[in-house]
Task: inverse folding
């Protein structure tokens, strides 16, 4: 597949990689100085990941914790800045450790430059990690 050219296409491609559990390919979509932020992260969870290596370290164990099945209800909104999109979606699957259902709603503000993610603010629901068996980040950074 040729490299996606628009932010929306790159984002859709990134979701396919997550469903395929291809974290190295997902990380390859990032700029070296990319920034991932979690503004609503609860205490003990990372709020800011600076650089591709930090993002890779955070995401590497993701498939060991969450078995993603689908991203229903995906809506991608264009903004007045052509490189920035706002995404609304749900991620559904199961928690690997417990087999419990995983169902998380997300809103993300994503910026792409030169075919790579440069900024990703992920407004996920911090209340979801209070459920037993939901240590899906595998980290307390």
Result:
């Amino acid at each position: 597949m040729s490299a996606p050219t628009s932010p929306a296409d790159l984002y859709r491609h990134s979701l396919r990689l997550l469903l395929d559990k291809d974290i190295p390919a997902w990380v390859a979509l990032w700029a070296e100085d990319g920034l991932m932020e979690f503004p609503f992260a609860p205490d003990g969870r990372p709020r800011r990941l600076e650089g591709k290596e930090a993002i890779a370290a955070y995401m590497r164990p993701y498939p060991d914790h969450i078995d993603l099945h689908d991203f229903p209800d995906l809506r991608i909104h264009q903004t007045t800045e052509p490189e920035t999109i706002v995404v609304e979606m749900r991620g559904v699957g199961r928690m690997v450790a417990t087999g419990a259902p995983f169902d998380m709603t997300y809103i993300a503000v994503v910026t792409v430059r030169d075919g790579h993610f440069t900024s990703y603010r992920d407004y996920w629901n911090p209340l979801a990690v209070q459920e037993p068996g939901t240590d899906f980040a595998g980290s307390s950074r």
About this structure: The mean pLDDT is 90. Helices lie at 7-19, 23-27, 52-59, 62-65. The CA atoms of residues 88 and 99 lie 25 Å apart. The radius of gyration is 14 Å.
